[in-house]
Design a protein that fits this description.
335 residues, alpha/beta, Arc Repressor Mutant, subunit A, D-Maltodextrin-Binding Protein, domain 2, 3 domains, nine-stranded mixed beta sheet, two-stranded antiparallel ribbon, 21% strand, globular
């Protein structure tokens, strides 16, 4: 994106400082005498606020950010004191945004996205990215989500070559089988940089043609009489995809396969019910989601890169691109 277009975006959007420029009589958190003619805050507090708003609890946000709970609480308090705004109301363990919190969240999310664009534009202006970047991920995520997006990134840079490896197992970054890995498994060994970049939901789907013949299940007990499409159990190398046994004991599975993409297409043709991520099942006009409230599994995405490679420009650019895209596509990944 040309730099001018980014500046145009910034020019016509209200800034967080405009929101925070409140009168001295505005309600404050922690101090009635705090003045707001000139408001300063730490950007890390705003970043923490975004994660708490998305994750819903301080504990979940602390895990995502790899911070302790006390630090997250301190940053939220500091932001509320700096802005003079109550950002959340508590309901049990969950935190819900106030009306003003919703407004700041909207602006802060735009700032986050624009920040990613500025970073990419600055990188592109400084140097043309060149070389090979190998990205490893699960087959369904690679085919349905990453492939169309990474191909656009590669087309922007004539000297950049992205290799997308859709594997049934997690490649070894320490042995340089890949430069970047995005998987459901967070490695605990090796000289690796690991960050949680998002989550996705998994639900139960079936084609209209299948449901017309077999009926639409309404309870967990109803599932016992249905046909399912799933993995070849003894060939599963990532246990996190073994989600069907959580729902049905001894399911009827006349057709199984190692590929989630194959399961998707078999289900589209009426082969049976299938457990699919929302970024797959939710994009099909042939599939219907069933029992959304009762069946809604949540899984994490972990981005991993070797410490020696994290600052290499072409790899850094790919990591930043993926991170910004996944934050922007929250609704695509989560139903």
């Amino acid at each position: 994106m040309p730099r001018a277009s980014i500046l145009d975006k910034l020019e016509y959007r209200p800034t967080i400082m405009q929101i925070c420029s409140r009168s001295a009589s505005s309600p404050t958190v922690g101090s009635e005498n705090m003045k707001h003619e000139r408001t300063n805050f730490d950007w890390s507090d705003l970043y923490t606020f975004l994660h708490v708003a998305r994750d819903g609890t301080i504990g979940a946000a602390a895990e995502t950010l790899r911070l302790d709970v006390t630090t997250v609480r301190r940053r939220l308090t500091a932001l509320e004191e700096a802005t003079g705004i109550t950002l959340f109301v508590r309901s049990g363990r969950l935190l819900h945004l106030t009306a003003e919190g919703e407004h700041i969240f909207s602006i802060a999310s735009q700032m986050e996205n624009l920040g990613g664009e500025i970073t990419r534009d600055a990188t592109d202006a400084a140097r043309e990215l060149a070389g090979v970047v190998r990205v490893s991920t699960m087959e369904g995520f690679g085919s349905f989500y990453l492939a169309p997006r990474l191909s656009r990134l590669a087309n922007r840079h004539s000297q950049l070559k992205i290799q997308l490896v859709n594997a049934q197992h997690v490649l070894n970054l320490s042995e340089r089988e890949a430069d970047v890995s995005i998987n459901m498994v967070s490695p605990e060994r090796g000289r690796l940089i690991v960050r949680k970049v998002g989550q996705f939901t998994v639900g139960l789907y079936g084609a209209a043609s299948y449901l017309e013949g077999a009926g639409t299940p309404e309870t967990i007990e109803d599932l016992q009489g249905h046909t399912f499409i799933t993995y070849v159990d003894d060939l599963i190398s990532v246990p996190h995809v073994r989600w069907l046994p959580d729902l049905v004991a001894n399911p009827k599975t006349p057709f199984v396969c190692t590929s989630l993409t194959s399961q998707y297409y078999a289900a589209c043709e009426g082969g049976g019910l299938v457990m699919l991520p929302h970024f797959m099942g939710g994009q099909s006009d042939k599939l219907v989601r069933i029992m959304k409230t009762e069946i809604n599994l949540v899984r994490d995405w972990w981005l991993v890169v070797h410490q020696d490679l994290q600052s290499v420009p072409r790899i850094r650019a790919v990591i930043d691109f993926i991170t910004v895209a996944m934050r922007r596509d929250h609704d695509v990944l989560m139903s």
